[in-house]
Amino acid sequence: MAKDLENEARHRALNRIREARTQHVHGVQEWMAKITSGDRTALAQAISLVESTKAEDRATAEALLKRAAEKAGHALRYGITGVPGAGKSTWIEAAGIDLISRGHRVAVLAVDPSSHRTGGSLLGDKTRMSDLSLHPDAFVRPSPSGRTLGGVAEATAEVAVLCEAAGFDRILIETVGVGQSETEVRHMTDVFVLLLIPGGGDGIQGIKRGILEWADAVWVNKADGGPERMAAAQSALSVYQGALSLLAAPEDGAPPLFGTGSALNGEQVHALIDALEARLAEARRNGNLQARRSRQWRDSAEALLAAEALRQVRNHPKFAALWKRLQEESAHSQILPMEQVRVLLKHLD
Ligand code: GDP
């Protein structure tokens, strides 16, 4: 008798879970339908969910992303990097308006691993990109802050997928802050634009050497305000060109585009977008775009794997005690780091 009751209770519980799952799937379907039909509120809500740090939001977020991914893949992603003050936001505003005038729909996202910017950044981005953020064919999203699951860059890549599903076919991703963000953005974009300014002291202006190597376009901004400033921009460009000629060719073999111009008055922005769009079209034709994306997926998966493996090791019930003991022992007898790892992994199975 007791067994029967138990079975029935289990059966009922299972049914409830099944029902909840079906509702959940319907909910996601409806949500996605709203997003693809251009409902901005639905898109904004989906983005908040994907950026959420709550573990319980993750299942719905992933269900939504899976559906979004089915509709994504056609958009092209621009990465824009440069030191603070180089003119990234100003350039994105000009480039965004230019892309819209070509019939595209533009989403602007930011990667900010330092994540200092919270509510206020929304206002910051919106005022800085005032024309673009008011445009019906644009969507300007401030940088996510505080997400820990998978990291801020991963959240940005996921938000890009949602934006694609919402019909935005050019995604401009800006690096904010310094440090990791250039690498992160490079791993999620189809072209990578490096903005520089004339007269940055040592010439390279704190830009890491690797970034110069990765750039698909190197553009010296603020070439405006008279012949002297234009000449300064040209001469800075020559320095960068010289530096780059000493480095190896980028992965897909295409040399970077070089230029000077002004994001503020739009000078040469159109020409640069022309060249980048032509390059992207060619990369699509010859398979380089697909190859680049495959590499990026592999790199992202590897980075996630490393983060996940580390998380699992740290969450192992024996980890904390073992680690503490190893550190204490090491303080006395200097156990090599590699040896510490070996001992640790052996004890954690
Ligand atoms: P970000 O920090 O790289 O995003 O730089 P911003 O786009 O916020 O620009 C920093 C400052 O430089 C702002 O005051 C802009 O108005 C100015 N600025 C940006 N682009 C240009 C340009 O092409 N010419 C001039 N003269 N000023 C610019």
List the SSEs and their pairings.
Blueprint: H1 2-36, H2 40-51, H3 58-71, E1 76-81, H4 88-101, E2 106-111, H5 119-128, H6 130-134, E3 138-140, H7 151-165, E4 170-175, H8 181-186, E5 191-196, H9 209-214, E6 217-220, H10 227-245, E7 257-260, H11 269-286, H12 288-315, H13 319-333, H14 337-347
Helix pairs in contact: 1-2, 1-3, 2-7, 3-7
Bound molecules: guanosine-5'-diphosphate (GDP).
Overview of the structural elements:
With 349 residues, the protein is α/β, with parallel strands linked by helices. The protein has three domains: 2-68, Single alpha-helices involved in coiled-coils or other helix-helix interfaces (Up-down Bundle); 73-299, P-loop containing nucleotide triphosphate hydrolases (Rossmann fold); 301-348, no CATH class. Helices cover 60% and strands 10% of the residues. The protein has helices at 2-36, 40-51, 58-71, 88-101, 119-128, 130-134, 151-165, 181-186, 209-214, 227-245, 269-286, 288-315, 319-333, 337-347; strands at 76-81, 106-111, 138-140, 170-175, 191-196, 217-220, 257-260. The chain has a seven-stranded parallel β-sheet, sandwiched between helices. Helix 10 links the parallel strand 6 and strand 7 (257-260). Helix 1 packs across helix 3 (58-71). It is globular. Residues 82, 84-90, 128, 221-222, 224-225, 262-264 line the site of guanosine-5'-diphosphate.
Main features:
binds guanosine-5'-diphosphate, single chain, 10% strand, alpha/beta, 349 residues, Rossmann fold, Single alpha-helices involved in coiled-coils or other helix-helix interfaces, 3 domains, 7-stranded parallel beta sheet
